[in-house]
Write a structure and sequence with these properties.
rod-shaped, 2 domains, alpha+beta, 28% strand, five-stranded mixed β-barrel
């Protein structure tokens, strides 16, 4: 996944790059792009970009998709499994009339637990895996 931006600060082998929001991000509120037209990201600077340079940033699409899967699909799967198990448990205990309620309660409980799982996973993952990298300098201003 390639983005373009302007280097605003360099600190050793890292650079802060201001990236402009794309039209596809206009209605999404998942990150700061949903609230502002520009965002500053930290990127590895192995090409020697300097403040004011227009640069190309790269982040592996598979890593972006993997992070999205963990953040969105894991909680969804936990909730669906909770709804199913709650319904099955209600019927097994002779409370079939309340199966929907049991499913909803267990689904919400597992959804809440999944956020804990995602949080712990996020703390254990090396943040450098999800750091953008400047691949080339496009020009200077």
């Amino acid at each position: 996944m390639e983005e373009h931006g302007r280097v605003v600060e360099v600190q050793g082998d890292l650079a802060k790059v201001e990236v402009t929001r794309h039209e596809a991000c206009r209605h999404c509120k998942a990150c700061d792009f949903g609230r502002t037209d520009r965002i500053v990201v930290e990127a590895t600077n192995r090409v020697g970009a300097q403040p004011g340079d227009e640069v190309a940033l790269e982040l592996e699409s598979s890593r972006v998709l993997g992070a999205a899967f963990v953040a969105y699909m894991i909680p969804l799967l936990f909730m669906v499994v909770g709804i199913y198990l709650g319904s099955v448990l209600a019927r097994a205990t002779g409370r079939g009339g309340s199966a929907s309620l049991f499913g909803a309660v267990l689904g919400l409980a597992l959804l809440a637990a999944s956020y804990g799982v995602v949080y712990v996973y996020g703390r254990r993952v090396n943040p450098a895996r999800f750091q953008a990298e400047i691949t080339r300098v496009l020009g200077s201003t």
